[in-house]
Amino acid sequence: MNWYLQSGKESDVAFNSKIQLARNINGYPFEIENKEQISDLENKIKENLYNIGYDLKFLKLNDMDEITLNSLVEKGLLEKEFAKQKRNIGAILINDDENICIEVNGENHLLIQVFTEGLELKNALQLAQEIDTKISQVLEYSVSKKYGFLTRNLTNVGTGLKASTRLYLPGLSETRNVRKVLEVVSSFGINTKMQSGNIYEISNQKTLGITEEEIVTNLHVVSEKIIGQEREARKILEENSIELEDKVFRSYGILANCRKITSREVDSLLSDIKLGTDIGILPELTDLKVMKLYLYTKSANLQKNCGKQLDKLQRDIKRAEIIKQIIKEK
Questions:
Q1: Best exposed site among 3, 116, 122, 209 by fewest CB in 10 Å?
Q2: Ordered alpha helix ranges (H), 33-102
Q3: Can you identify the CATH homologous superfamily of domain 3-234?
Q4: At 270, phi and psi to the nearest 5?
Q5: Comparing C-alpha atoms, which of 191, 134, 117, 142 is closest to residue 22?
């Protein structure tokens, strides 16, 4: 199974970890729009794919159909802005396991991305550094002795590293402590971004004057602190078990019995379903089933799984069918 369908360390709270390294190639402008330069850079990359290794495949965004492209965005493999704004000139290097995906000709010439399930930042960094070293041996990076790796956006100059974890915080949300916890985290130079269904992305702000290892260690420590706070909040919720069980079973009842349902509704209900699964209220569900529900109910991956394009009503009906299939799996 691919990483996004697996459970990892601290996966009751930590969905996944991601390392991104922004790199630019010497001899090219930071923003390449000239077709000849784009083609030249692409050819250099393709010529050295074997030397880079990891069974990476070169794919141009323009050669992908809309559903396939959006399915990669839904999996978190591509930045949404890159897929939309760079459709005509962008490309990716990706392996079969999809734990490595390198954006080509995005905001920077290369964005090396490594993904892992759970809280595995250090392992992800190690793999990203290995890939980075392999690429630097065949393509010369734009580097300053004083400032480090040069990037189009000044906020990435230095290491060019963005490390992030996606944390699921229903306990802190229900006890109304999530804002307080995240405000404290922000005061330590950590970015926080709310996503759907009580999921928050936690990432580093600083990239200059600090090593890659220090960035990852700091984020790992902060993530562990938040995870600890979330688990304490869940204990408080469990003390009022009737209210919690009622909420979980109501959400489960809708998911298990609906005839049609939107993606937004599913995201909202899955927050309760995952919590119920993690603390044992829903023994009929497993981590794998919950991960499948998150992935295969999203519009593009739903259609990819069906093998055809569907209109909105058809997607809503099919989504309800897929939910029932996943729940009944043995």
A1: 209
A2: 35-47, 49-52, 66-74, 80-85
A3: Glutamine synthetase/guanido kinase, catalytic domain (3.30.590.10)
A4: -65, -25
A5: 142
Tell me the H-state helices in the chain.
35-47, 49-52, 66-74, 80-85, 121-136, 170-174, 178-186, 212-239, 241-257, 263-278, 287-296, 299-306, 312-328
Contact 278, 12 (CB under 8 A): yes
CB 286 within 8 A of CB 224: no
Q: How far apart are CA 67 and CA 58, in angstroms?
A: 18
pLDDT tens track for 35-81:
899 999 999 999 999 999 999 999 999 999 999 999 999 999 999 99
Q: How far apart are CA 91 and CA 104, in angstroms?
A: 5
Q: At what angle do helices 287-296 and 299-306 cross, to 10 degrees?
A: 90
Which of 149, 130, 135 is CA-nearest to residue 104? 135
Helix %, strand %, coil % of the chain (to 5): 50, 15, 30
pLDDT in tens, 272-328: 999 999 989 998 899 999 999 999 999 999 999 999 999 999 999 999 999 999 999
Q: Are 226 and 169 in contact (CB under 8 A)?
A: yes
Q: How far apart are CA 88 and CA 177, in angstroms?
A: 44
Contact 204, 189 (CB under 8 A): yes
b/e for 295-323, b at 16 or more Cβ within 10 A? Answer: bbbbbbbbbbbbeeebeeeebbebbbebb
Tens-digit pLDDT profile for residues 120-156: 999 999 999 999 999 999 999 998 988 899 898 888 8
The confidence score (pLDDT) of residue 118 equals 96
Task: Give me the chain's average pLDDT, please.
Answer: 93
**In contact, 86 and 55? CB cutoff 8 Å:** no
Angle at CA of residue 156, ends 152 and 159, nearest 5° = 120
Cα–Cα distance between 121 and 204 in angstroms, integer?
12
Among 103, 33, 100, smallest CA distance to 69 is for 103
